[in-house]
Amino acid sequence: MSTATPSPSAQPGTPLGPRPRHVLFLVSSSREPGQQGNSEWLARQAAAALPADVGQTWLSLNELSLPPFVDLRHTVGQYPAPEGDLKTLLDATLAASDIVFVSPVYWFSIPAPMKTYLDHWSGWLRTPGVPFKTEMAQKTLRVISTSGDRAKAQPMFDSYRLCAQFLGMAWGGELWGKGGAPGAVQADTEAVAQAAHFWR
Ligand SMILES: Cc1cc2nc3c(=O)[nH]c(=O)nc-3n(C[C@H](O)[C@H](O)[C@H](O)COP(=O)(O)O)c2cc1C
C-alpha cells in the first residue's frame, strides 16, 4: 500500500486558506497484508474517478503500529508530539483536504484499528503546537464501506458523521456495497456505479 505522504499542510502559524485537494484514504480492514478487501476495492473504484490533479495517500491502519490511546485529559492534560506511525498518521491527516474512512462493518460498528485512530484525535486536540481542531474544520470526511446488510451499517455511518460534526468537518456522505469474501462487492453493480459519482 502506498504510504507516500505529502508534506504536512498545517504547521503552527501557517495561515488557513485554499489549498490543493489531497485525499487521504484510511483503510481499516483487518485482512492480512496484501489481501485487498471489498471496502478497499470499492474505494479504489471511487478514487479512479478523482481528477488527475487531486493527490491521494493510502494508508492501511493494520500495517501501522498504533499505541493504545491513554486518556490524559484530567491528569497531565496534554500530549507529547506523536512519534513513529502515530506521527505518520497525524501528518497525513493534517495534510489532507479530504479524508475517506475505508471501513468495513465489524460487529455493527467501527473496526478496532479505526477506533484507535479516532481515539487519538482526542490526544491531538491537546497536543501543544498542533492546530488540530482548526485544521480539521477545513476538511471533508467521507466513508466507504462494505458489509452484509446496508440497514445494519447505519449505526457505524452515524458514528462517523457525529465524529465529523464534533470537529466541524464537512460530511461528504457514505458509499456502501455488499461485501463478504474478497471480490464479492464487484457483483454489487449499484455500488460500483455509485463509486464513479462519489465525489459529486
Ligand atoms: C470481525 C468481523 C465482524 C463482522 N461484523 C459484521 C457485521 O456486524 N455486519 C455485517 O453485515 N458484516 C460483518 N462482517 C462482515 C464484513 O463486514 C464483510 O465481509 C466486509 O465486506 C469485509 O470488508 P473487507 O472485505 O473490506 O475486509 C464482519 C466481519 C468480521 C471479520
Question: Could you please describe the fold and organization of this structure?
Answer:
It is a single chain. With 200 residues, the protein is an alpha/beta fold. It has a single domain (22-195), classed as Flavodoxin domain (Rossmann fold), CATH 3.40.50.360. The chain contains six helices and five strands; from the N terminus they run βαβαβααβαβα. It is globular, with a radius of gyration of 16 Å. The model is unreliable at 2-16 (pLDDT under 50).
- Classify the beta-strand content into a percent band: 15-25%
Q: What does the main sheet amount to? A: 5 strands, parallel
CATH architecture: 3-Layer(aba) Sandwich
CATH superfamily: Flavodoxin domain
Structural class given helices, strands, pairing?
alpha/beta
Can you count the beta strands? Answer: 5
Number of helices: 6
Instruction: Identify the bound ligands.
Output: flavin mononucleotide
General shape:
globular
**How much helical structure, as a percent, in the residues?**
25-40%
Give the tally of structural domains.
Answer: 1
CATH topology: Rossmann fold
CATH class: Alpha Beta
Strand adjacency order, main sheet: 2-1-3-4-5
